[in-house]
Design a protein that fits this description.
The complex is a heterodimer of chains A (262) and B (278). Chain A has 262 residues and is mainly α. Helices cover 77% and strands 0% of the residues of chain A. Helices cover 70% and strands 1% of the residues of chain B. Chain B is globular. The model of chain B has no long low-confidence stretch (mean pLDDT 87). The A-B interface holds A 20-21, 24, 27-28, 31-32, 35, 38-39, 41-43, 45-47, 170, 172-174, 176-177, 179-181, 183-184, 189-190, 194-196 and B 33, 36-37, 39-41, 43-44, 46-47, 50-51, 54-55, 57-59, 61-64, 184, 187-188, 190-191, 195, 198-199, 202, 206-208, 211.
């Protein structure tokens, strides 16, 4: 366990050396929130029938989504790099669980992003964009829990894509296509309630809504109290399902691994 | 020291086709990979188009902008970016040429430096990825927004696309020039460029005055797509801008290129190798 904490610490320190990157991350998030708010403002100017309350809900949705994007960022090419450089051979010789190592590494990044990106972006957002506070204190707790589950769903989905580097060596394309699917289908850029019914029906069959849409709607109080447990169980099932799929794929990948020189 | 050009235009064109052939050869070496990357870039760029489509499917129009008009406005960004990465990718990747020492090789050749930098790179995957999105948007909208494609309009359109490509290339080149002074500006550049591009996906009239000014005079994306599309669409909101802006894009491109070229000359003068040349 100690070893894994050290891995996480190392990831944290690695990230902190790139100061320009994290400042850029914060500014990017704020700009994106701002662009989206401008667009929604323009939309609502036309729609006279929509009252101000709904607009504010939308603003809160947009802000939350981009704040979550801040902390959901992971090192997409960590495994790919190890496979291609051959250093994965050394990692596999070490008395550690490789999957657990990758996870702790990403947890280090998560902590870094919470401290250095989420908190500044959150403060700016509260001051600039006047988002709603959580619907209630218990909803806030549920939101945090649901966001953690959302992170796990995304992590396990990512892990499957990362493992594909055992076959492809370069995973840029797959990672990019996966990102595109996540951005649209998870409701990160557009709330599901604005989407056509057939798309929503499709999304409900996939794990994507668990990543952004579910936590945000819990925050907004749009999920009735008695259904919250249900949606979270669904998130948990997706996280576990993807985790198991990743495990199986990992087994197969290990048999496939050929290290060139290293 | 001024010297007379070593080659005439005709010879330069032949050289250029030779360079392009070489680049294409190295790109097409990995056909499967490149196709896959092109598809990935296409998907990535489609995200914002799909989101815009879903919003408009629901709300029909935003601030008087209809569905077709919005996509027509957007198509300029993709097409000009596509031209930029197909023909001026060297200006984008220039900083990495300095770090890798590739630039030193160019210095030793009896050929214009800027020419070598421009012809040495073609980003076919990004060019196609962006280009296909642009062509889809253009063909879907160009004939339904009430544009008469007279020869004059077609010439204006082509000039605008090239101007847009040069404006974007100049922004990249400007940022890259700092690497002569060993200052890394890639993060700053990407942040400014891609955020400005995000803003420009929608009409600048959606934004508060300061952002509009920024997109007109600092990172002049307004001249890549907003004013050109106003030339064709003639929307009422154009009244709040000077009508001369409609024709200014080529001038903006020329001024930016000249300024960047001067800055670049300064950099070359000051340049000392990183010592990593191969």
């Amino acid at each position: 366990m100690r070893a894994y904490v050290e891995f996480a610490k190392k990831a944290f320190q690695n990230n902190i050396t790139y100061r320009a990157d994290y400042v850029a991350g914060v500014i990017n998030a704020i700009v994106m929130i701002f662009v989206n708010i401008c667009i929604w403002k323009a939309i609502y100017e036309d729609e006279q029938s929509v009252d101000g309350v709904q607009f504010k809900i939308l603003i809160t949705y947009v802000v939350l989504s981009f704040l979550m994007q801040c902390i959901y960022g992971m090192d997409e090419y960590h495994i790919e790099y190890k496979v291609r450089s051959g250093s994965i051979g050394l990692d596999l010789l070490k008395p550690i669980n490789f999957s657990a190592y990758v996870f702790s590494y990403n947890l280090g990044i998560l902590v870094f992003r919470i401290v250095m990106q989420l908190i500044p972006a959150l403060i700016v957002s509260i001051v600039l964009f006047k988002m709603y506070p959580p619907f209630s204190l218990s909803m806030a707790a549920c939101f945090v829990l649901s966001t953690i589950l959302g992170y796990l769903v995304l992590y396990n989905l990512n892990f499957i894509v990362w493992i594909s580097s055992f076959w492809f060596y370069w995973t840029f394309s797959l990672v990019t296509i996966k990102d595109a699917a996540v951005m649209i289908l998870s409701g990160a850029l557009l709330p599901l309630w604005f989407m056509p019914q057939f798309l929503v029906d499709f999304i409900n069959l996939t794990p994507f809504a668990s990543i952004y849409y579910v936590p945000i709607t819990i925050y907004l109080g749009q999920v009735p109290m008695e259904e919250i447990a249900m949606v979270m169980v669904k998130q948990l099932i997706w996280a576990l399902g993807l985790f198991l799929a990743g495990k199986v794929l990992w087994r197969i990948a290990l048999k496939k691994l050929v290290v060139q020189g290293g | 020291m001024e010297k007379k050009p070593l080659y005439n235009i005709f010879e330069l064109l032949i050289l250029m086709t030779k360079y392009i052939k070489l680049s294409l050869k190295s790109i097409l070496e990995y056909k499967f990979d490149r196709t896959f990357i092109t598809i990935a870039i296409f998907c990535r760029e489609m995200i914002s188009v799909v989101v815009m489509y879903l919003i408009l499917a629901r709300f029909v129009h935003i601030k008087g902008w209809e569905y077709d008009e919005m996509f027509f406005l957007y198509s300029f960004l993709f097409l000009s970016y596509s031209i930029f990465v197909l023909f001026f990718a060297g200006m984008r990747d220039f900083a990495s040429m300095i770090y890798s020492g590739e630039f030193d090789r160019y210095l030793t050749r009896p050929l214009g430096l800027m020419f070598q930098i421009i012809v040495s790179r073609i980003d076919l995957s990004a060019g196609l990825g962006h280009g296909i999105v642009g062509i889809i948007l253009f063909t879907k909208t160009a004939f339904s927004v009430g544009i008469i494609w007279s020869p004059k309009n077609i010439i204006y359109y082509i000039v605008i696309l090239i101007s847009g490509a040069i404006i974007q290339a100049s922004i990249f080149m400007f940022a890259s020039c700092f690497s002569f002074w060993t200052i890394k500006t890639e993060n700053l550049r990407n942040m400014l460029f891609f955020n400005a591009r995000r803003f420009s996906g929608y009409p600048i009239s959606f934004y508060p005055g300061i952002i509009q000014k920024l997109l007109m005079f600092v990172i002049p994306f307004a001249f890549v797509n907003y004013f050109p599309s106003q030339f064709f669409l003639n929307k009422a909101e154009m009244n709040s801008f000077w009508s001369g802006y409609l024709y200014l894009s080529p001038a903006v491109a020329a001024i930016m290129f000249v300024l960047v070229y001067a800055f670049w000359k300064q950099g070359v003068k000051r340049y000392s190798s990183t010592g990593t040349s191969m």
